[in-house]
Every structure is written in C-alpha cells, then in structure tokens.
C-alpha cells in the first residue's frame, strides 16, 4: 500500500473515531454551542431595538441581519475549544502513546481531529444559522455564487482555527488547561465587529478590533450574505485563514512529532 493510501485509510479511521466520541459524549459540543445561541437571543430580544438604532438601522430586523454573520464565526471559535480539550485528553490518557507503537500513519491522528472538528463546526454553524432564520434573519440579496463563497470562507476559517486549537491541546497538561488556553477563540469575537461596527468603538480601541482575524472574516461574510461592500476585507480574511492554518499545522505537527519527555 502506498504512503498516500495508508494516510487516507488511517485518517478515515481516526475521523470515525472522533465522530463516535462526539456522538457518545455530546455535552461538551452542546455547551459550547449554547454560547452563541444565547448571545444571539440576548442581543436580539433584549438589546435589539437599541442596538439597531445605534448602528443606524430602522428596527430589530436590521440588527438581526448585522448580528448573525458575526455569531456564525463565533460559533466556529466556540466549537474548536472542544477540539483542544479532545486532543489534550488523547495526549494525557495514554492513547497517543499506544498509537505511536502501532503501524499507522503518524499524521492521521491529527488529521482525524481536524476533519472531525471542521465537520462539527459546519453542523454547529447550520444550527445557529437555523436559529437566526427562525427569529428573522434573511439573506435575500445573496447570489448562489456568494452563498458558495460564504460556505467556503466558513470552512476555511474553521480549518484555520482548528489547527490552532490542536496546537493548544497538545501543549496543555490537562483538559482544563486546554479549555483555558483556547479561550481567546471565544474572546476575540467579543472585541470584533460582531456586535457593533468598529467605527462606533472608542478611537483607542478600534485598532484592537480591526487588526485581528475575526473582524475581516465577519465583514466578508456579512458582505456575502447581505450583498454589501466587502472591500479589502476579503483578501485580508483569506490571508488570516491561510496564515493561521499554516502556523497551526506546523506548530501542531512539530509538537506531536517531538519525542515524549
């Protein structure tokens, strides 16, 4: 069997393993999924009218349209925290040590985690999107091509954050530390353009919100779904995704392939 065939076969096996774990122990994924859903309902029904007036909208529906794209990307950040915890559990419970002694492709363990996490992120995004549609979100101006581009951006963003989360899981001594190390993946969307435009923030804070991966990705997704101008955000978002994916991949593989101490 060629190296490529071996890698595909073993990666598929590891993917099935991680999906079975997610199905048998869904509490972590559900808990992380509840965060963006609760924020969506909170900001729409408690702050919706006030926030809509603040961004120049007419009513609550304008703020729903503004809010949902940001929360879709926040959902990806929340889901990948579960990846960091899962990887950390594998490292600390001894299963990785057993895998190292078996005749399997070494990289398949990480690939299984990454692909499984991306699939979970897509499912989570669909669920949060369904809640958004149920409370009034509409994307009538988006073309089929824009929908495909939006889906591609979500998958690319999920892949990038997942590789970063895998690295965080590998350096964590236990699941609690992995969860804490991955908290920036939830914190960064809170200080981005998810809830209010960057221009509405204090001047000293605007660079913090603007020069981070979530804001250009949110603005790009918002433009694709609502038919608004994307400007330079599209290229910046793709650059962030590719940069984080490469960084996370190299970091994770180097840490995973290092001899255990």
UniProtKB/TrEMBL annotation:
Main location: membrane
The keyword Transmembrane helix is annotated on this UniProt entry: yes
Membrane topology: Multi-pass membrane protein
Compartments, as annotated in UniProt: Cell membrane; Membrane
Keyword Transmembrane helix assigned: yes
InterPro entries the record matches: ABC2_TM, ABC2_TM_bact-type, ABC_2_transport, Nod_factor_ABC_transporter
Pfam families registered for this protein in UniProt: ABC2_membrane
Domain ABC transmembrane type-2: 27-259
Transmembrane segments: 25-48, 63-88, 109-135, 147-171, 183-205, 234-252
Record keywords: Antibiotic resistance, Cell membrane, Membrane, Transmembrane, Transmembrane helix, Transport
The family this protein is said to belong to: Belongs to the ABC-2 integral membrane protein family.
Database matches in PANTHER family: NODULATION PROTEIN J
Name of protein: Transport permease protein
Native source organism of the sequence: Streptomyces doebereineriae
Organism phylogeny: Bacteria, Bacillati, Actinomycetota, Actinomycetes, Kitasatosporales
């Amino acid at each position: 069997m060629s190296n490529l065939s071996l890698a595909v076969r073993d990666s598929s096996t590891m993917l099935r393993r991680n999906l079975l774990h997610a199905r048998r122990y869904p509490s972590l994924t559900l808990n992380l999924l509840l965060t963006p859903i609760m924020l969506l309902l909170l900001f729409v029904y408690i702050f919706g009218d006030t926030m809509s007036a603040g961004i120049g909208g007419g009513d609550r529906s304008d703020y729903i349209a503004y809010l949902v794209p940001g929360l879709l990307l926040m959902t990806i950040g929340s889901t990948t925290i579960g990846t960091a915890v899962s990887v950390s559990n594998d490292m600390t419970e001894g299963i990785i040590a057993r895998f190292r002694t078996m005749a399997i492709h070494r990289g398949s363990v990480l690939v299984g985690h990454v692909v499984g996490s991306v699939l979970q992120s897509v499912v989570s995004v669909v669920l949060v999107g369904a809640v958004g549609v149920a409370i009034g979100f509409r994307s009538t101006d988006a073309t089929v091509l824009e929908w495909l581009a939006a889906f591609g951006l979500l998958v690319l963003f999920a892949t990038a954050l997942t590789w970063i989360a895998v690295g965080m899981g590998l350096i964590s001594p236990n699941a609690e530390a992995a969860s804490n190390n991955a908290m920036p993946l939830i914190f960064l969307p809170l200080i981005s353009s998810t809830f209010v435009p960057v221009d509405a923030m204090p001047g000293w804070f605007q660079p913090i919100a603007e020069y981070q991966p979530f804001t250009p990705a949110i603005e790009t997704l918002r433009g694709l779904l609502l038919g608004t101008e994307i400007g330079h955000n599209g290229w910046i978002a793709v650059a962030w995704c590719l940069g984080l994916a490469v960084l996370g991949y190299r970091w994770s593989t180097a840490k995973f392939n290092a001899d255990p101490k």
